[in-house]
Amino acid sequence: MMSGTKPQRIPELDGLRGLAILLVLIWHYGLASLKIPIGLFAGPLVLILNLTWSGVDLFFVLSGFLIGGILLDNREAPYYFKAFYTRRIFRIFPLYFMWLAIFALVVLLAPPPAAARCAPAAWLWGSPLPGWSYVTFTQNFVMSSTGVYGANWLAITWSLAIEEQFYLLLPFMIRRISPRWLPRVLGACIVAAPLLRYILFHVAPYPEFATYVLMPCRADALMLGVLCAWLIRQAHLQRRLLTHARWLYVPIGLCAGVLIFMALFPTPERFVVWGYLLLAGLYASLLLMTVSRPHGRVAQFFRIRWLRGLGLIAFGVYLFHQAMSGLSHGLILHQTPQLQSWADLLVALVALGLTVLMARLSWIYYEKPLVAIGQATRYGP
Q1: Could you read off the pLDDT tens digit of each residue along the chain, which spans 381 residues?
Q2: Residue 62 and residue 178: Cα distance in Å, rounded?
Q3: Contact assessment for residue 123 and residue 326, using Cβ atoms and an 8 Å cutoff
Q4: pTM for the complete prediction?
C-alpha cells in the first residue's frame, strides 16, 4: 500500500467513492421519494436507513484525504499552485459548466407560465437561484440565506460549492503553515465546526440550511480527511496504525451506535451540532481501516469491481441523477419523483440506468481526455 512516507495509488478509494455515491442514490431514488405508510416494525429500520443522505459526508472526508495528500506531497514544489488549480479546473469545470449551460438553455427557451403549470417541469427547473451564484460557486450562501435549494436540476451543487471553497483555502494552509503546526490547525478547524454549527443553529434565519451547506460548518469532515492524509505520511504514526489497525473498529462502532440512537430518537439541534461530527469520525475511521489493512475484509469489499467502477464515474452520476429522476418520472408517469407503486420503482430503475449510462459515456468521451490535459501540468520538473 505505501512506500516510504508517501502512499501509492490506492484502488480501494475508488470503492469508497462508489459507496458514497451509492448512498446518495439510495437516498434520492428511494428513501427521500418514499410515499407509502411505514409499518410499526419497518419504521425504525427506515429511520436508520435515512442516514444514507450522509453519502455526501463521505465525499467530503475522501476529498480532504485525497486533495490534502496531493498538496502535502507537493508542498515544496515550484509549480504548486499552478499545477493544483489547473488540474482541479480541468476535472470540475468542463462537466459542471456544460450541465449549467444545458439548464440555462432550457430555462431561457421554456415559457415560464407553462413550466409553472407543469409539476415535473417546475420540480426540475422552477425557482432557480440567481445565475451568478451557480457560476461563482456561491449558491450555498444563497441557499443558507433564503432557506431553499432552488431548482432540483442544480440543487445538489451546494456540495460542489463547498468543495471549491475548500480548494481555495487548503492549498494556502498547507503551503504556509509549518508541518509542525499543521495538525494542530487542522484539529482546531475540526473542533470549531460543531461550535459554529451550534451558534448558527440559534442565530441563523434558516439554521438547518446554514449548518448544512456552508463550508466552515462542514470543515470537520473535510479537515478530518486532511488529517488522515497527514497521519499516514508520518512514519512512526504509520507503523502504529498498521500494527493497531483493529482498534479502528472501536471508533467505527461507537460512532455508528450513537448515530443510530440519534436516528431513532431525533433531536434537530443535537444532530446538527454533533451528528455531522460523528459521521465524519465514522467515515474517517472507515477510510483509515481501508488504507491501513489492504488485505483485510474491509479493503477487499472496496475492491469489488462494480463498486470501483461506480466510484470512477461518481462525479457524473452525482450531477446527473436528480435530473434523470425528474425527467423519467415526468415523461413516463407525468409526476414528480416519488416511490409509492411498482410503476414508480420501475421508472426509478430506468432513471438509474440512464444516469449510470450518461456518466459512463461522459467519463470516457468527455471528462477523461480533459483530465489528461490537466494532469499534463506538473508540480515540478
Answers
A1: 444 444 467 889 999 999 999 999 999 999 888 877 665 556 677 778 889 999 999 999 999 999 999 999 999 999 999 999 999 999 999 999 999 999 999 988 876 555 566 888 889 998 899 999 999 999 999 999 999 999 999 999 999 999 999 999 999 999 999 999 999 999 999 999 999 999 999 999 999 999 999 999 999 999 999 999 999 999 888 888 888 888 999 999 999 999 999 988 888 899 999 999 999 999 999 999 999 888 889 999 999 999 999 999 999 999 999 999 999 999 999 999 999 999 999 999 999 999 999 999 999 999 999 999 999 999 998
A2: 23
A3: yes
A4: 0.94
| Inter-residue contact 325 to 346 (CB < 8 Å) | no
Structural contact between residues 280 and 54, judged by C-beta atoms closer than 8 angstroms: no
Q: Which three cell numbers stand for residue 231?
A: 497521519
Contacts of 381 (CB under 8 A, 6+ apart): 78
d(CA 282, CA 263): 15
